[in-house]
Design brief:
The chain is α+β, with helices and mostly antiparallel strands and about 625 residues long. The protein has 24 helices and 16 strands. Helix 13 runs antiparallel to helix 15, helix 15 packs across helix 16 and helix 21 packs parallel to helix 23.
């Protein structure tokens, strides 16, 4: 079975080459070289050559498969890149609101082939699966740039369509092919009835990964304390669900297979077949089949089967953040968690008399949690630093304290939804019963995220240098014959202190500093002079993203409160992320323009922290601000 793992390694290498290094006919050329290497190694009879043959064979087939997908399937959307075309798009999911209208995913027919497309409509309407949208659209091919490969093509979305005028919408007919999004929407509607409003967004995120309603402050707290994965449907949720199914089936193998495999498939469909859920579902199905066949379950082989399936369906999934984090997490656990656990519990194993004591059990439970968390973080931390710009140092503590409670909440949420369908009052009662456990998780995450140095940000080169330094230390520690954990800990702490000190002092060495934050189409400027710091505007392609990037820049420099925030005007590209920014980095003074007609953003500043100072000119640009205190 390990031959499958070696083959998958080669196939994965081919996908990496196809997405990040080469394309078109280069893939065919590289496949020829790889095949030649396979033929050469066939004449060698060493064990190493057999392993190399498996890897090279997987690489050869992967390169040929990638070439075929590129030439036979992706050539059509590549040709329409940058063109305007009259399209008929069938929505495959419910629409979501945007700043200018709505967005949705759908299917479009091009040259007789169906392609998934992310499309936008300027009108404020609601689309359901099966609705047909007709109009002129400007098309962009998503494959090519790192951003699009991550955000779209890795999810199987190869085109983005923006309207060039008005669109006509025809209500579609319900079809069984849309059972997953329809069922998902019904579950979300039922959860609105079952759970209290202030925990509803969290329960939706926990069960279905629906994070659109999750408050910005909550999402950031979960991310900073290293447990954001609990609200992004992942392998953890599939494992919890499978455990519940296995227990309810009385641990009967046949019954578990009959009930569990369809339920896992349905859950993956409702979650949108995200790579992390598909990976976990395939691994659980392999486990079920192993139990039925009385065969030993081999986790690395099941991971290889899941990876091969995902990449065979869409080789560009290799660029998906969800795929990389999910596979990296499992690889880290397989490679390091067992070793860490054995190291942490070696003292208990030496004395058999103490193995059954309460203290020994507690140590094993803590060691298990720490070893799994460290194993998962070993390969995912660099990915989080690269994609999200943050390094959570509080992840071990948060996972140790909260994951067991999150598992219980997940079970209760499922029970409340099922009972809510049968009899709503009982479902609501169970929904209220989970209220305080959810609040404990949220408040604990908020407290942990505000602890000193709970998170480092890669805005600072010193934080990146410390991360590299930490990995070097761990390698030296693992390879050393004599383990000195206190030496390792002291080196890490001293290095961290140096990185934080340099990060906090660097901006103070300049008399003046002006930093334009990369927020896309918008503006966020940080003005600094010695110990003073002001922010001018905060908005961009995404208000929350603009706020996050600005807050990361400030917090990486040890700035957790600014002297003032200056707002030039209330357009979304300048003010869309201001309130989110203030939730993370409060301001002593808010310099706001005043207009005769109040707008939504201006009215929300009533609840914002800071002394409000207003300009009677309606805008700060080109005027000497006349201020008046209109705060409380």
């Amino acid at each position: 079975m390990r031959k499958l793992m070696l083959f998958t390694i080669g196939f994965t290498i081919a996908c990496v080459i196809g997405v990040y290094l080469a394309c078109d006919w280069w893939l065919l050329l590289l496949a020829g070289f790889s095949l030649a290497a396979v033929i050469t190694l066939l004449f060698m009879k060493s064990l190493g050559s057999k392993k190399a043959i498996c890897i090279l064979l997987g690489c050869t087939i992967g390169l040929l498969w990638g070439f075929g997908v590129d030439q036979l399937y992706l050539s059509i959307p590549r040709k329409v890149d940058g063109q305007i075309a009259e399209l008929q798009i069938t929505a495959s999911d419910y629409s979501a609101p945007t700043e200018y209208g709505i967005k949705a995913d759908g299917n479009v027919l091009l040259n007789g082939k169906t392609y998934r497309v992310r499309f936008y409509v300027n009108e404020e309407v609601t689309l359901s699966p099966g609705d047909v949208v007709t109009g002129e659209f400007f098309l962009r091919y998503t494959v090519g740039s790192k951003k699009n490969a991550t955000a779209y093509s890795g999810k199987g979305l190869f085109l983005v369509a923006t309207p060039k005028g008005s669109c006509t919408i025809e209500q579609g007919t319900h079809s069984v092919r849309y059972f997953a999004p329809v069922l998902r929407q019904k579950i979300l509607n039922k959860m609105d009835q079952v759970f209290p409003a202030d925990i509803g967004p969290f329960t939706k995120s926990l069960l279905l990964g629906e994070t659109s309603e999750l408050p910005f402050e909550t999402a950031q707290a979960l991310r900073d304390c290293g447990i954001y994965h609990i609200v992004a449907v992942s392998g953890m949720h599939v494992s919890i669900l499978f455990t519940l199914i296995y227990i309810l089936c009385g641990k009967q193998r046949v019954l578990t297979a009959i009930v569990g495999m369809p339920l896992l498939f349905g859950f993956a469909a409702i979650a949108g077949f995200s790579p992390s859920v598909v990976r976990a579902s395939v691994m659980q199905c392999v486990m079920i089949l192993s139990l039925l066949a009385n065969k030993e379950y081999d986790p690395p082989t099941s991971l290889a089967a899941a990876v091969l399936l995902i990449l065979a369906v869409n080789p560009l999934s290799i660029a998906s953040v969800s795929f990389q984090l999910s596979v990296g997490c499992m690889l880290g656990i397989f490679l390091f968690s067992g070793r860490i656990y054995r190291y942490l519990t070696e003292n208990i194993k030496k004395d058999k008399r103490k193995q059954k004591t309460l203290k020994a059990r507690l140590i094993r439970w803590v060691a298990g949690s720490i070893s799994v968390t460290l194993g998962a973080m070993s390969l995912t931390t660099p990915l989080c630093a690269a994609y999200f710009g943050s390094i959570s140092l509080a992840g071990i503590l948060a996972n140790l304290l909260l994951l067991w409670l999150v598992s219980l909440i997940f079970y209760v949420v499922i029970a409340a939804c099922l009972l809510g369908v049968l009899w709503l009052p009982v479902g609501r009662a169970l929904g209220w019963a989970v209220y305080w456990p959810v609040q404990i998780v949220l408040r604990s995450a908020e407290v942990i995220s505000k602890m000193p140095l709970s998170t480092l940000y890669t805005n600072s080169i010193y934080a990146v240098a410390w991360l590299i330094f930490a990995y070097i230390l761990f390698v030296v520690f693992a390879k050393g014959k004599k383990k000195h954990p206190w030496v390792l800990t002291c080196c890490l702490v001293v290095g961290l202190a140096a990185a934080v000190t340099f990060s906090w002092l660097e901006h103070k060495t300049d008399d003046y500093r002006i930093t334009a934050v990369d927020v896309g189409q918008g503006q966020a400027i940080v003005l600094q002079k010695k110990n003073q710091c002001y922010v001018v505007d905060c908005g961009g392609d995404s208000g929350s993203q603009a706020a996050d990037r600005t807050a990361q820049l400030l917090r990486s420099q040890g700035i957790f409160r600014i002297d003032g925030l200056i707002l030039t005007h209330y357009d979304e590209d300048h003010a869309g992320g201001v309130l989110n920014l203030l939730s993370r980095v409060p301001a002593d003074n808010l310099y706001l323009p005043v207009f005769e007609e109040k707008n939504d953003i201006e009215l929300q500043f009533i609840n914002a922290q800071g002394r409000i100072v207003a300009s009677s000119h309606g805008s700060w640009a080109g005027h000497s601000p006349t201020t008046s205190d209109i705060s409380d």
